[in-house]
Structures are given as structure tokens and as C-alpha cells.
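Slide 14.
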Amino acid sequence: MSGQGEDRTSAGCLWSEVSEDVRHDVEWMEGRHGSAMQSLPSLEKVPVPKALLCLPELHPDRPRGSKAMLDAHGARARLARARPGAWLVSPLTSQWWAKWPNDHVGWVPKGTGLPEVLRVASRNDLQ
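Slide 15: predicted structure.
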């Protein structure tokens, strides 16, 4: 069956053929989980964390390679509508990603000291 209505991955595979054991990873890499929907405190109540402001956007210790690129794509999609200072833990690699004041999303070292109140869930069906 071929048609425009079929739901496919960016690689052209039918979503119905993506194995259940890897579906969450593929959803993350494809950005299918969408932007975070949870409410975060305003910038006035909780400013962008100083720890984030002290880090370079392109951290020299950041992960590199194809898996890191796929992970960053998922993080960008998830943080797309989030406020600056929001951050998450990737379900794919357990790496930390945050949104800078200029709306760029980048890697941050684990344990950076970002406030839990600004952490977003990796999926909308998880709290």
C-alpha cells in the first residue's frame, strides 16, 4: 500500500514497522514528541540560571558524532517553545540539554546546578 497518508519516519520507514523496543528512541530522534507542554515559572520568578550563563554555548566537552547530533535534534524539538533556562535529560543518552537566552539549545555537563523547577519531562505522557 503506497500513498501520501502513510505515516513514515524521516528514513522512509513506516511507523507501524518501527519495532516497539526502539520506538521511543526513534520518536526522540525524529522530534515526534513535540515541544514540552508543562508550565514553567516566568523569567521574573526564576531567572535564567547563572550556572547556564557561565557556560559556553558550544562546550568543549560536548558529545560529538552522529548519536549526539540525533540527541541534540530531539532536545531542540522538545525545548522549542520552552523559556530560556529550561533543561531536560535526554531519554536517548541521559545527556543534559538546556535552552540559552538566545533560544539556542546546547549540551550542559551533568550536575551543572540547574534548578529542578525548570526541568521539562522528555515526553508529554511522563510527569
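Speaker note: The beta strands are 87-89, 96-99, 105-108.
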